[in-house]
Amino acid sequence: MKNSLQLNIYLKRNNRACMVFKRNGILYRINNLTKVNEFIQAMKELVVSVKMEAMEDFYLELYDHRGKCWVLESTLLKGIVALKLWFQSESSGEHLDVRFSWEGIALDFIRSVHDMEVMAGISRVFGIYRKD
């Protein structure tokens, strides 16, 4: 079975975006991710750490325009990157639930982040923004 990862980002105005995490046809979307520029920069820094094999555990809080919070967790072990996107829903009480997960070779992760950066760059250059 193919173990693909896609990180699609659709920029909106005011440093917001629709962020889509996709694995083998299964996707999870954050519709109004805020602080997009900071998110992209953090992902670029994460790629550098993965390339240098210097990363152990990485956690990044992601927020939407309503203040909902997700935690992106990434670990690297023997050339394998594991991503998990955690969210605390009303039904889960104080516990965080995994909403998206992927595990694969570091090169696949690096390519996915690179593709996301290119997608964001093209959107900025041509002023392509989603209206929703």
Features:
alpha+beta, 4-stranded antiparallel sheet, 44% strand, 3-stranded antiparallel sheet, single chain
How do you describe this structure in short?
The protein is α+β, with helices and mostly antiparallel strands. The chain has helices at 36-51, 106-126; strands at residues 5-12, 16-23, 26-34, 57-63, 69-77, 80-87, 97-105.
What features would you describe in this structure?
- The chain is α+β, with helices and mostly antiparallel strands.
- The protein contains two helices and seven strands; from the N terminus they run E-E-E-H-E-E-E-E-H.
- The chain has helices at about 35-50, 105-125; strands spanning about 5-10, 15-25, 25-35, 55-65, 70-75, 80-85, 95-105.
- Strands 4-5-6-7 form a four-stranded antiparallel beta sheet.
- Strand 2 (about 15-25) and strand 3 form a beta hairpin.
- Helix 1 runs antiparallel to helix 2.
- The mean pLDDT is about 90.
Write the layout of secondary structure elements.
Blueprint: E1 5-12, E2 16-23, E3 26-34, H1 36-51, E4 57-63, E5 69-77, E6 80-87, E7 97-105, H2 106-126
Antiparallel strand pairs: 1-2, 2-3, 4-5, 5-6, 6-7
Helix pairs in contact: 1-2
Strand arrangement in the largest pleated sheet: 4-5-6-7
Main beta sheet: strand number and arrangement? 4 strands, antiparallel
Considering DSSP H and I runs of 4 or more, what fraction of the residues is helical? Answer: 25-40%
Amino- and carboxy-terminal Cα gap = 35 Å
How many strand elements?
7
Element pattern in H and E: EEEHEEEEH
* Structural shape: globular
Radius of gyration: 15 Å
Mean pLDDT: 90
Structural class, judged by helices and strands? alpha+beta
Low-confidence stretches: none
Strand content: 35-45%
Our count of helices gives 2
